[in-house]
Amino acid sequence: MLVIIMFRSRKSGSRNMVAYISVFNMYAKVCNGVLWFTADVVYGIIYVILVIIHFLVVGEPVYQGPEKVIYFQGKELDEELARDKHCLWYITFFTAWSPACSSLAPIFAKLSAEYTLDNLKFGKIDVGRYPEAAKHYHINDSTFSLQLPTISFFKEGKEVERRPSLNAQAKFQKFYFTEDNIKAAFDLNNVYAECQKILDAKKPKEDHAKSE
Question: Are the CB atoms for 107 and 74 separated by under 8 Å?
């Protein structure tokens, strides 16, 4: 079981102790549920109810490290994209109840702290709370969705890339949201360099204007 836990945690991109404990607890609960149902169906049902209550009341620890993520509500994302089309955006569409979204949170936060510029920003919107946003951006927010989480890249106010994406058979390809995978899929280093170059080109002009 330890091998399975380590393999699953590494594939998800989360390699901290909380991720390993979370996966271990999930498998432990499944095994305990099978054992309780084998011993007595009534006890099995009671155990499942208790697990559901525990899941609803006690969630996973919330990431509290450094981040530069802007959280959008309702139609705020649409308004921001329309307001400033010179700014590039990486947006995560997530839900609070999805373990995959919880695993992505610290990775996305770290990337935001490292790559945010005046013209390159990171944002998130909870499509569980704002289903109209899920519908507008074509995100399936159901329990069995393969699109949670989704990261989209917006340029000039329009989406130009997203993960996970559709393959040739119009099916969503599994995407492992590791830090390296995200950087590679969205060409993050080159995008950052280009945005920095634009800012550097503007700086002499601004300094010249101030001196006058």
Answer: no
User: b or e along 45-56 (b: 16 or more beta carbons within 10 Å of the residue's beta carbon)?
Assistant: eebeeeeeeeee
CA distance 178 to 152: 15
Residue 105 near residue 14, CB atoms below 8 Å: no
| Alpha-carbon gap, residue 85 to 154, rounded angstroms | 9
Q: Domain spanning 69-199 has what CATH number?
A: 3.40.30.10
User: Which residues, at least 6 apart from 97, have a Cβ–Cβ distance to it below 8 Å?
Assistant: 128
Rounded Cα gap, residues 196 and 115, in angstroms: 10
Instruction: State pTM to two decimals.
Output: 0.75
The tens digit of pLDDT for each residue in 73-116 reads 999 999 999 999 999 999 999 998 888 898 899 999 999 999 99
Q: What is the DSSP letter of 89?
A: E
Q: Where are the domains of the chain?
A: 2-57, 69-199
